[in-house]
Amino acid sequence: MNISASRLIYRAILRLHPSAFRDEFAPDMLWIFDQEHGQGTTAHLLLDGTISLLRQRCRLRNNPGQLSIASGVLITGPGISPLRLLQATIVLSLICFSCLFLEKSLNASVLWSDRMPCYTVTLRAPSHAEVVLQPTP
Amino acid sequence: MQAKPPKSPPLSSATLHILLALAGGNLHGYGIIKEVARNSEGHYRLGPGTLYDNLKKLMDTGLVADLPPASSRRKSASTKEDDRRFYTLTRQGKEILASEVDRLQAVVTKAKLRLQEARTGRA
Predict the structure, then answer these.
(1) Rounded Cα gap, residues B49 and A26, in angstroms
(2) Are A128 and B45 inside 8 Å of each other by CB?
């Protein structure tokens, strides 16, 4: 994938994180992405950013005015602008394509439970460590 | 009879690796990622999302603290890395890490015993 395109996607993923988390950590996360993306870890970084987005959003799903993503379904509250909704839709579409790509190309299996945030993602690519997320209490 | 102090639950792999990395000294986020990869000989690789998600939880629980920029900057170097936030292990973090290491040591000891029993045919 083109570096500028993957960086744009990663920035979009960061942009969708809750503002408190984004303000605190997004600049450092983007800096780390810039350091790492030349080492053939772009897919891993995008997947990691997506998982982080899901985790942060799932924690805020009960807060009014926040956007939550659960099992690939958008749950919107009051105060969500159409632009943010469009951003979320684009990113979710990219996530779906990325998951399909990973499953087909990198021998990875992505398993989603029907109860978010209880989910398990297992990546078995030759060059990556196995990633297993435990259910959030 | 005196009640036993409550034991802390086992740490997740990511948390354990982050605390272990910080036990060697104050590090910024990318420094932690590199230290974790080095400690695990490349077998465990943290992504920035996983790292900061865990760091936030660790800071919320008081096991890790971020340092003010002035105290975290190194005197010799003035690279872009100096602008990053540095993190340090708190006293409570050190205690939790030590207790986790003890727990893992007990597991290893028990596992070795079981394997030895299996080898000698007494299992």
Answers:
(1) 9
(2) yes
